[in-house]
Amino acid sequence: MSAAWIPALGLGVCLLLLLPGPAGSEGAAPIAITCFTRGLDIRKEKADVLCPGGCPLEEFSVYGNIVYASVSSICGAAVHR
């Protein structure tokens, strides 16, 4: 039986370990935020967040379009058109 597959398997495992993880905070659970949490309130470059349901859309402060100012509500920016 040939053992030529062993180096290939080792290379495959190494490549899997070098691949980037999921977007956000290294696969961590999303951060539960309020309807009025602003971008500057989260001190991470990237973070997965969970907005609550039933936020009063007319009360959001949102500044920008596609790219939003850090003073914008995160949940408001998520639903902004």
Describe the protein's architecture and organization:
A hairpin with a 1-residue loop joins β3 and β4 (about 65-70). The protein starts with a helix and ends with a helix. By secondary structure, the chain is of the alpha+beta class. The strands form two sheets. A two-stranded parallel ribbon has the order 1-2. It has a two-stranded antiparallel ribbon with strand order 3-4. It has a domain at about 25-80: LCCL-like domain (Ferric Hydroxamate Uptake Protein, Chain A, domain 1, Beta Complex). The radius of gyration is 20 Å and the shape is globular. The protein is about 25% helix and about 10% strand. Mean pLDDT is about 75; it is low at about 5-20.
List keywords for this structure.
81 residues, alpha+beta, Ferric Hydroxamate Uptake Protein, Chain A, domain 1, two-stranded antiparallel sheet, 10% strand
Layout of strands and helices, then pairs:
Elements: H1 5-18, E1 31-32, E2 49-50, E3 64-65, E4 67-68, H2 74-79
Parallel strand pairs: 1-2
Antiparallel strand pairs: 3-4
CATH topology of one domain: Ferric Hydroxamate Uptake Protein, Chain A, domain 1
The helical percent reads: 10-25%
**Strands side by side in the biggest sheet:** 1-2
Strand share of the residues? Answer: 5-15%
Mean pLDDT: 75
The tally of strands reads 4
* Estimated structural class: alpha+beta
Apparent shape: globular
Organism: Pongo abelii
Pfam family, one: LCCL
InterPro entries: LCCL, LCCL_sf
Keywords: Signal
